[in-house]
Specification:
3 domains; 533 residues; six-stranded mixed β-sheet; alpha+beta; Dipeptide-binding Protein, domain 3; 21 strands
Length: 533
Amino acid sequence: MTTITRRSTLRALAGAALAPASFAPLARPAIAQAAANTLHFVPSSDLAALDPIWTTGYVVRNHGYMVFDTLFAMDTGFRVRPQMAESHEVSDDGKTSTIRLRPGLKFHDGTPVRAVDCVASIRRWAARDGFGQTLMAQTDELAAVDDRTIRFRLKAPFPLLPEALGKLSSPVPFMMPERLALTDPNTQIKEAIGSGPFRFLADEWRQGASASYVRFDGYVPRDEKPDGMAGGKMVNVARVQWHTMADGSTAMSALRTGQMDWLEAPSADLLPVIARQRNVTVSTLDPVGTYVLLRFNSLVPPFDDVVLRRAVMRALNQTDYLQAMVGDSSLYRECKAFFPCGTPLSTGTGSAAMDGKLDEARAMVKASSYDGRKVVILSSADLPMLAPLGEVTADLLRRIGMQVDLITTDWGSLLARRASQKPAEEGGWNIFHTTAVAQEFMSPASHLALRGSGRAAWAGWPTDPKMEALRTEWFAAPDHAAQLKLAAAMEQQAFDRVPYVPIGQFRQPTVFRNVVSDIVSASAPLFWNLRKA
């Protein structure tokens, strides 16, 4: 996506007759049928891969929710409910969990969904996911008892097993045919064959341009109302067409002229103009929002010094960042917490350390080991929400007495450099910014940015044995009250050790034509339940 000014947006939208250069209009004989049966959607980025286990990219996760299904799923109240599972029974001693599949489940190739498919899928997912690894470390045996029965024999009770198998964000434990699930977890699958509500049309996939899905007539939804990722997945359109449009103004023109039905993530610059259109709705579908953070490289100087990390946290003003990202104050909120605000474990314990006092922050910089070297900030220019953050941080660091080297690049190049554990002057880095859907960081089980396992941790690689011990205790907690107490201790520890600085939360706007209705509120675009007039 390119950076878009309001002036260029006005010019683009003023030309109502302007056809988007990257989208071919529908052929006239097909217009009536396509209008009724096909939903035209512009995703936030191109679908560049098919394997939602191999990559954590949200666009591939969103593709996964169309094609695959899950044993359990989370609703908007953070409750985990059966999805492919018909029942779940736990033995009296808590050491045996038995999951029974719903009858009649089948894959898009016509083969039945069997317990052996699910066992192989769970193992492949767990090899790539921290929550899954924790579950499997507590598992003595995972086996298919018969075609519809999955059994876990556990070393000790693991009451969070449904939460693990109902994890809603990347990587999601999607169920695949055994022949695909036996693929090495570090190797991409090349087919998208699931048991979900849509079939992926591989022969129509054009990387950089489009992806096509059709309703899977063999899908049997649960007899329940949809609620987040849970409930019945009734499909009311015959076909969904994803169109990759790198230029935001082109995509908005296509929406305005009726060639597109839904834009997942329009730039904030476009919203004031399109909001005046009578036939268009600007909304936010995720009730909790997206969590924003500034991540330090704790492995190399200068932020291997916790005093310097504390200084940046002390100086940071969340509103400066949120205004730069979003602009509209109704779409963001400050959140001085390490578990996102609005989620069950968020307490903000220790947040007094974030008071925005620049003078104290400057004194802390002088008291640290900082030697005047340039701090390398990696900034992404091609993601409109992230693009301003590097500039805000660069200005902040200069104001507290630090030297800055702001490197602006595309997200793919940023990810490549972020993987380096070398010092910044040898091709490494010191700071980058990113976002995550709030539910992804709502629990110690899935919160990558809170792990303190050193070089084995997420990029930034902090070492924090106390945090790791608290996480282990959290898994063994007997009830929510005990979990909440440990979560508060983890937040206090994070405010002390500062693996990153929380910047706040925003709700991503989405835009759709009023011919579309009944879109399910969730942290990902969902295509069941919705209707197109």
